[in-house]
Amino acid sequence: MPEVRVRFPPSPTGYLHIGGARTAIYNWLFAKKHGGKLILRIEDTDTERSTQASIDGIIEGLEWLGIDWDEGPYFQTEFAAEHCAAANKLLAEGKAYKCFCTKESLDAKREAAMAAKQSFVGYDGTCRNLTPEQVAEKEAAGIPSVVRFKVPRRDGMVSYDDKVLGLIKRAYNDIEDFVIVRSNGKPLYLLCNVVDDIRDRISHVIRGQDHMTNTLRQVLLYEALGQPVPVFAHMPLTLDLNKAKISKRSHGEIVAVQFYKQNGFLPWALLNFLALLGWNPGDDREIFSREEMIEAFSLERITKSNSIFNFKKDDPKFFTDPKAININAHYLRTMPVAEIASLVKGELEEAGLWNPTYDSDKKEWYLKTIEMIRERFHTLKDFTTLGRAFFADDFTIDEAALAKNVLKHPDLKTWLPLLADRFEAADDITAESAEEIAKGLAEDLGIKPGIPINAARAVITGQIKGPSMFELFAHFDKATVLKRLRDVDRLYV
RNA sequence: GGCCCCUUCGUCUAGCGGUUCAGGACAUUGGCCUCUCACGCCGAAGAUCACGGGUUCGAAUCCCGUAGGGGUCACCA
Predict the structure, then answer these.
(1) Could you tell me the residue range of the domain that residue A259 belongs to?
(2) Nearest nucleotide over every DNA/RNA strand to the A216 CA, judged by C1'
C-alpha cells in the first residue's frame, strides 16, 4: 500500500459531536494502523457560518479524546486560489461551462419537476451548449453566472469500489451538471474538497454515508482533473432511537463530545464506545487499549448499517447510552490507580475539596480511598457527589439510606454512640478488630449486626451502599468515625 | 418522487451455504457471595434472522421482488 494519508475535515459551524468524533476516530485508527498520516483540515469556506469558537471547540474535543494529527490544521480558505485555478482549468478544457440561469428560475423548475414526480429533477442543461458568442454576449450584458461541471453525457455508469459497501455505481445520466463555482466567484465544497485532497495527497477518504452522492460526482472531478481517485470508505451514520440523524439542533448537548468531558467521562472510554458503534474486531473483544484497537482496526470490518445511539431523554437511570456508561465504569475501576488519582484530583479541585496533603502525607490514604470507592462509580463526577463524605464533612445523607438504615430504628440514637465508645476504647482499629467490635456490640444488644453497620454506613459515608464498613472504620480517621457516629442524634428531628 | 445505501434479541453486534431450532456485550431478571451496594460467578428471559418468492439435498447466509428505514437531490459543508 502506498503511503496512507487520511484527513478529518470538519466544517467549523458547531461543536464536535459524536458523529464527527467517530469519523475522526476511524480516520485516526486507520492512519495509526498503517503508519500513515492524519491531516486536520478546517473546511471554512462557508464564511457565513464558520466561527472561531467552533474551531477551538473542535480542536479541544479532538485533543481531549486523544486524537492527534500529523499535519494541520490547514484552512480551506487559504487555498482559494488553487480552487479557482482548478475551476478555470476545467473551464478552459471544456469540462465545465458558465451557466446564466437564475437561481429563481432553477428553483421553480426543480419544484415543478418534483411536484410532477418526474424522474429527473436536476439541471436541464439550458446553458450547456451556449456558443462562445452567446456566452460573451451574456457576460457583456452583465448577467451573473455560475460554473457548472459538464457531466459526460454517455451511457453507462460511474462507479467506485467502496471499502465498506462494495461496488457503488450510478448512471451518468442520473447526475446533473452540478455547480462548482458560485456566481460570486467562490468555488463550492465539491470542488474544493477534491482539490484539497489532491494537494494533501489523500489516499483514503473515510467519511459518513451522507457523502455517498457527493462521491460519485467527485470521482468525476478527479477524472476530469486527471488525478487518481482515492479509496473511499463510507461509514454508517449514527441515529437516535427514532432513527433520525443525530444533530445539535434536535438533540442538544447529549451528542456533544464536550458533554462527556463535563460529565465525568474518561476520553478513552468514550472513544472505545464510539469506535464500537459501527465497527467490531471480528471477535468478542469490546475493551481495548490504544495499541489493541489500532492493531484490530480495519475498514473492512466497519458495519454497513446505521447504528442507534441508545439514549432516552430524561432516563432516570442512564443519562446517556447505557453501554457508554458501562464502558466508562469499567475503565474507572480497572485503570491504574495513579492515573485515575490525578483525574479525581481535578474533580476535587473543581469542587473545592482538594487537600494538598493528598499529594504528600495523605497520599496513601487518598489512593486507598479511590481504590475503595471507584468500584461502584460510573463517572468521575461520582467522586465528588456520591463520594463526598470521604473528602468533606459537609455531605448530605442519602434519603433512602437515612430512612431505611437510620430513622427506622430510633434506638440507634444510643447504639451508634455506644459503638463509638467501643471504638474509642480500642487502641488500634483494623478491619478485623472493627468487625469484632461491631458484631460484638450487636450481640450484646441482641440485634442483627446489619442494623448498626448499615446505620454507620449512612452516617459515615452518607450512602446506602459502599465498600465494606469494617474496612471503612479502619480507613477513616478515628476522630471522624467517632464524631459522625455520635452525631446521629441530629438526624432525628 | 428519482437515485444510492441498509434491514439478525430493546440497543451495539457475531455470522459470510451445512458443526447455529442463531453466539457475545450492554440493558432487564433469578441465584450465589454478603454488613449494603457493586464487582465476580452461575442461571433466565429476549431475534419465527423485515416479508414473499426462488436457487440448492440444505439459506440468516446466494438471486429476484415487496415493505420499512436512512442518505441525498443547494450558488451548505
Answers:
(1) 5-69+236-329
(2) B4
